Amino acid sequence: MNNFKESVIIAVNQIPYGKVVSYGQIAVHLDNPRAARAVGWVLRSLEGVDLPWWRVINNSGRISIKGNRFNTPEDQKRHLLAENIHVADNFDIDINKYRYLFPV
DNA sequence: GCATTGACTCTAG
DNA sequence: CCTAGAGCCAATG
Q1: CA of A45 and C1' of B3: distance in angstroms?
Q2: pTM of the entire structure?
Q3: Nucleotide nearest to A70 (CA to C1')
Q4: What is the reported pLDDT for A104?
Q5: Chain A residues 8-67 within 7 Å (CB) of strand C
Q6: Which pLDDT tens digit goes with each residue over A28-63?
Q7: How many Å from the CA of A29 to C1' of C10?
Q8: How would you class A104 by CB atoms within 10 Å of its CB: exposed for 0-12, middle for 13-18, buried for 19 or more?
Q9: What is the C-alpha separation between A29 and A101, in angstroms, rounded?
């Protein structure tokens, strides 16, 4: 049984403290390199789930989140800053420095 | 089963 | 650096 949703949750839970990954990386990790959008869809759908969703950003190293009533860009920025991850006021992140690569 | 949406990514200009 | 267009996937109505 491979629920896409569940697979995404597991992948995100593998992200260590102080590291970030892109939606595309997760998609690749799920053997669906083109499912980056679907990954974002899942994260958006997850609300009360215990998951470090803030460690997931786009491949441009920037926060793509629009901002729903539960999660906002400022929220994500605050979470990242709490993990020693530098985030510019423009929500720009040095993903090249903090990027986490999933184990093969 | 088609049309729409969304926290994506890439290429071009 | 920013915008626009196209491609892609999963869930929803």
Answers
A1: 20
A2: 0.93
A3: B7
A4: 84
A5: 32, 34-38, 41-42, 45
A6: 999 999 999 999 999 998 887 889 999 999 999 999
A7: 16
A8: exposed
A9: 10
